[in-house]
Every structure is written in structure tokens, then in C-alpha cells.
């Protein structure tokens, strides 16, 4: 009976995945929504049956995709399979929502790296070179537009703009991780809702105000900041690693800062307009807003601000 149930669920979820995959490939712009839904069949199967069955499920589904779908479906299936499987296994192991989220993020990072390599090796498209060409075209176009209104930039100014834009290419790992964090969160949330509906399990993320990073993050961030003060070779691997660590740690600390604002509003029973204003200001004025939120996250992490607020409440 157990094996029959596994086969039945595997067949049904496999068909659902293939239908979503075909819709993603053949209906324009739908991938903006389905990219979050593609991992769900893997999440449901892994959450119900665990490691060995979901490995078999992945292999069979990948083989089917190779024969039945377009070339584009291979990287999409790898992405959904890695991310969805690790989220589902986290649920099966009864890990906390944030631990499950971290595992899912790792799975999506691996999937995105596979897509990155797939594009370069199979389609022979070097994304970094394409980005560099786009930067060169953008700088040239901007220069021509400025000239039409009577503004001329010096060669040094143009080179500075070009170097700053090209530096974004070194932050590809940060962009991949940030995208993986977002993909994992939304897919896990959808998985929770469906598991609650079909399997009658109450799974949910704890309130965002309870989000807490380990204190080691702040030390990693500060150590990376110290490295940025050294005169490192801009083209060296160490410099690229330092830049990515700084930006990724800063992103996480910003989340800590926003979480603290929600916590403060909840504990002090302040108006809920405060976190909304903080988010809007950060979007409209990111250089000032995000800097202040990051500073708040550092203070919260370094000085246990929440414990102090709890004691004085």
C-alpha cells in the first residue's frame, strides 16, 4: 500500500510539474509566476516521503524532461529540483522554517550556478562578456545623449563611470544568492500553504519580527570591511571575494534591521505605519535609507538591542 501511494503521488506530481513546465516555456511572461511554482511538486513529494524516494523522483522526472521537453527545460528542472527537494527534505526532517529556508536557498544557489554554466557551455554565451559589452554600449549612449544637450564628460570621468559599472560583474555571486533567498522564500511559502491544505499540517513562517541572524555575521562583516581598507588588486580573486562577502553580509544585516523595526513596533505597541514608512524610504532613498537600516541591524546584533527593549518594556 505504501509503495502504491508513493507511485501514485509521484505520477500525479510529475504530471503537474510537466504541465507547469510546458506552460512556462510556451506562454510568454508566465515564467515570472511559474518560476515560484515549479519547485512545489518536488517540495510536496520530498516533504511526504523523504530522501530516497525523492532522489528517484528527481531522476525519473529529469529523464522524462530530456525526452519530452525543450532544451530550456533542463536548467529549469535542475533549479526547481535542487531548491524544491532541499525545502521538502527540511520539512520532512521537521526543521525550523528558517533552517528549511536556508537549505532551500542553498539548493537554488546550486541550481542558478548550473544555469550559469549551462548557458556558457551549451549555448556558448559568456554572460560576463555580454554584460561588459552592454556596459560599453550604455556608456557610449549616455555620452552621446549628454553631448546633445551640451554636456561633455572628460575621458577620466567616462573611465570612472565605466569601472564602477563593470564592478557590478564581480558581484554576480551576491545577486545569485539574493535571488536564491527570494526564490526559496516564496516557493517555501507556497509549499506550506499547499501542505496545510492537502496534508493537514500547520506549517508557517514565524513572524518576521522574530527573524534573528547569528552574531557571527557581524564579525564576518566587520572583518570583510577591514579587508576593503587594504589596497587590494581590483582584479584579484581576494578582492572579488571580499566585495561579495561585504555586500552579502550587508544584505543580511539589512534584513536584521527591518526585523528589529517590526519587533520594536510590536513590543512597544506603536503604529504599524512605522515599518511601512521605513520600507518606502529605503526604496525611494536607498543610499540613505538602507544605510540607516543596516546600522540599526548592526546595533541590534552587536548590543542585543531586543533584550534591552524587552527588559525596559
From TrEMBL:
Note the coiled coil stretches, chain numbering: none
- Which ranges does the record mark as transmembrane? 15-47, 59-89, 101-123, 168-191, 211-229, 241-264, 276-303
Is Transmembrane tagged as a keyword?
yes
What does the UniProt keyword field contain?
Membrane, Transmembrane, Transmembrane helix
Question: Does this entry carry the keyword Transmembrane helix?
Answer: yes
The family database entries (InterPro entries) matched by this protein are listed as:
DUF2232 (IPR018710)
Protein name from the UniProt record: YybS family protein
What is the organism field in this record? Aquibacillus salsiterrae
